Amino acid sequence: MVDVNENPFDGTDAIFERKQPLKKDTFTPDTIFHRDEEIEFYINALQDVIVGHDPNNVFVYGPTGVGKTAVTKWVRDKLEEKADAEDIPLTVIGPINCRNYRSAYALVNTLVNEFRDPENQLPESGYSTDSVFEFLYEEIEAVGGNVLIILDEIDNIPADARNDFLYELPRAEANENTPITDAKVGLIGISNDLKFVDVLEPKVKSTLGEREIKFGPYDATELRDILGYYADIAFREDVLGEDVVPLAAAFSAQERGDVRQGLRILEKAGEYARMEGADGVTEAHTRRATDTIETDELLDYFEHDLSSQQALTYLATTLALIEPKHEASTKRIYNLYSSIAESSGRRVKSERKIYEFLDQLSMQGLVRSAERNLGRKGGRKYIYEVTDDPTDIINAALQSSYSDAVPSNVNGILEHYLEDEATEFEAPDTTDDEQQNLWQFT
């Protein structure tokens, strides 16, 4: 029983010294581990700026949580420091995270304002896309010298603008239709999608990939070093059991070699210990954290990484997969997407847009597709599946701001899916309309 007259909050924290180091995206480490070779490649690619040549375009790719952005920021700072000491004209913009922009207009608008003073900012609307590009070229020419633009999660640039944007910007100085004559432009693109370059037009590949740097996943030993560094800063002295960091490192290495995941495990384990009023963080706390980390990460996608339309498409794909037919075709996904969007009062986009949303989810590694030839019927269709456990996805959706879009009977159908694709819910001959009636939309 809770005594309502007592204040439940505690003014002290016996577990954490500083939690910020466990938030990798907001903390800049003093030490970078196990990236000496990648740093060497980076320095070699940008050395041309210091010795008087044009900046190179650099494409950096690898999975999430493997140090791409941290290394880029460190190299950027060292480059600026050297340029300043040598009196070399250099302006660096970014990293700008492309995930936050759903159109080329919005991204270029932001780039323009990065150059401008606060009192002279470009409004968010009111100009054509060609106009904001022209403003960008004018700003680049106005600062002159070497201009380096860093775009993080570059694979999130909208598909309809991607090829033009990534081709035109690095070549702006050579284009006689732009006002750039003296400035030298270089682009650094950072991508979580290892196949991103493969879907670009050949001319864009040639331009963007002048220098490519691949970041592979960390192994368990490397993760132990890195997580140990962050843990020493984040936790109070002597509260971590000796198995905690090795266990978090081993789990993260088995999954995908992701530092961010390891930090989440450490944070979650610490919170479990704190909730229990324990003196320290144990192996049991860490194992409990690993059991819930998948749902937590997917919840993060729903709340922070996906647009509302991407989130609804992701949920619809998962629902299509757990239905008795277990076939998530594009048409089926769209029908379910329409129903959950409508039932939750959200805007329903066209079927054509679903292909775009699925493509974006695929680039983020959340779904994958297989092409099926229809034989004599002619044509082809794509069947999708999710890359995470459907149970984790649905649990995350139920905890997210999209819980109102989840059908009320989802747990029952999920239970039959887990029991196995068969028995009483097997319905290979049902029509799409009949299949739709399985769901209870509120």
Strand tally is 8
Helix content: 40-55%
Mean pLDDT, to the nearest integer, reads 86
Structural class: alpha/beta
Q: Low-confidence spans: pLDDT under 50, at least 5 residues? A: 422-428
Number of helices: 16
Q: Alpha-carbon distance between the termini?
A: 35 Å
The main β sheet shows up as: 5 strands, parallel
Oligomeric form: single chain
β content, as a range? 5-15%
Order of helices and strands: HEHEHHEHEHEHHHHHEHHEEHHH
Shape descriptor? globular
Q: Strand order across the biggest sheet?
A: 2-3-4-1-5
Q: Roughly how many Å is the radius of gyration?
A: 25 Å
What is the gist of this entry?
This protein is of the alpha/beta class. 48% of the residues lie in helices and 11% in strands. It is built from 16 helices and eight strands.
Key features of this structure:
442 residues, alpha/beta, 5-stranded parallel β-sheet, 3-stranded antiparallel β-sheet, 16 helices, 8 strands, 11% strand, ORC1/CDC6, DNA replication, ATP hydrolysis activity
Structure in words:
With 442 residues, the chain is an alpha/beta fold. Strands 2-3-4-1-5 form a five-stranded parallel beta sheet, sandwiched between helices. A three-stranded antiparallel beta sheet has the order 6-8-7. It has helices spanning 36-51, 68-85, 104-115, 129-143, 159-168, 202-208, 220-234, 244-255, 259-276, 283-305, 308-322, 330-343, 351-363, 390-399, 410-419, 432-436; strands spanning 58-61, 90-97, 146-152, 184-191, 211-214, 328-329, 367-373, 380-386.
